[in-house]
């Protein structure tokens, strides 16, 4: 078997293993998924009228359209925390040490985690999107090409955050530490343009919200789904995704290839 065929075969095996774990132990994924769903319901039904009035005098349906794209990307951040925990668990419970002694492709272990996490992110986004549709979100102005671009952005963003989460899991001494280390993946959307426009924030706080990966990604996704202008946010979001993916990949592979701790 060639090196490429071996890598694909072993990566598929590791992917199947991780998906099986996710199916047998769904509590972590479901708990992380509840965060964006509860925030969506909270901001629509509790704060919806006040928030819509504060950002331009629209009605609740206008605020739903504004809110859902940000919550979809927040869902990705929440889901990847489970990846950090899963990787840390594998590293600390001895299974990785056993894999190192077996005749399997070394990189397939991380690839299995990454691909499995991206698939879980896609499933989570679909579920949160379904909740958004149920409470009134509509994307009538988006073309088929814009929908395709939106799906591509979500997949690229999930891949980037997953590699970062893998790195966090590898350097964490236990699952609890991995969960804590990955908390910025949930915290950053809270200080982005997910809930209110950057222009509505205090002047000293606007750079914090603007110069981070979630805001350009949210604005790009919002523009694609609602048919509004994207401006320079599309290039910024793509650059953030590619940069974070490259950083996460180099970090993760460097840590993983060290001598076992």
From TrEMBL:
Pfam families, A to Z: ABC2_membrane
Subcellular locations according to the entry: Cell membrane; Membrane
Residue span, ABC transmembrane type-2 domain: 27-259
Superkingdom of this protein's organism: Bacteria
Spans traversing the lipid bilayer: 25-48, 63-88, 109-135, 147-171, 183-205, 234-252
Topology class, membrane: Multi-pass membrane protein
Swiss-Prot/TrEMBL keywords: Antibiotic resistance, Cell membrane, Membrane, Transmembrane, Transmembrane helix, Transport
Record-linked InterPro entries: ABC2_TM, ABC2_TM_bact-type, ABC_2_transport, Nod_factor_ABC_transporter
Keyword Membrane annotated: yes
Family membership noted in the UniProt record: Belongs to the ABC-2 integral membrane protein family.
PANTHER family xref list: NODULATION PROTEIN J
Name listed for the protein in its UniProt record: Transport permease protein
Species this protein is from: Streptomyces millisiae
């Amino acid at each position: 078997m060639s090196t490429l065929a071996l890598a694909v075969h072993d990566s598929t095996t590791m992917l199947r293993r991780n998906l099986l774990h996710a199916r047998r132990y769904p509590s972590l994924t479901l708990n992380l998924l509840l965060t964006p769903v509860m925030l969506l319901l909270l901001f629509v039904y509790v704060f919806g009228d006040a928030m819509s009035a504060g950002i331009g005098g629209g009605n609740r349906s206008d605020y739903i359209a504004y809110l859902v794209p940000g919550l979809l990307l927040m869902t990705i951040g929440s889901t990847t925390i489970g990846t950090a925990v899963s990787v840390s668990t594998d590293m600390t419970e001895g299974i990785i040490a056993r894999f190192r002694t077996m005749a399997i492709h070394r990189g397939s272990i991380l690839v299995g985690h990454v691909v499995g996490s991206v698939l879980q992110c896609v499933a989570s986004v679909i579920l949160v999107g379904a909740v958004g549709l149920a409470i009134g979100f509509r994307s009538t102005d988006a073309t088929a090409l814009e929908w395709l671009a939106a799906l591509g952005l979500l997949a690229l963003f999930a891949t980037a955050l997953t590699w970062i989460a893998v790195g966090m899991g590898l350097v964490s001494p236990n699952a609890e530490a991995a969960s804590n280390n990955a908390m910025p993946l949930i915290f950053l959307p809270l200080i982005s343009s997910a809930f209110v426009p950057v222009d509505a924030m205090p002047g000293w706080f606007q750079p914090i919200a603007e110069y981070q990966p979630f805001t350009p990604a949210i604005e790009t996704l919002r523009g694609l789904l609602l048919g509004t202008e994207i401006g320079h946010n599309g290039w910024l979001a793509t650059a953030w995704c590619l940069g974070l993916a490259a950083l996460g990949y180099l970090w993760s592979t460097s840590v993983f290839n060290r001598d076992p701790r």
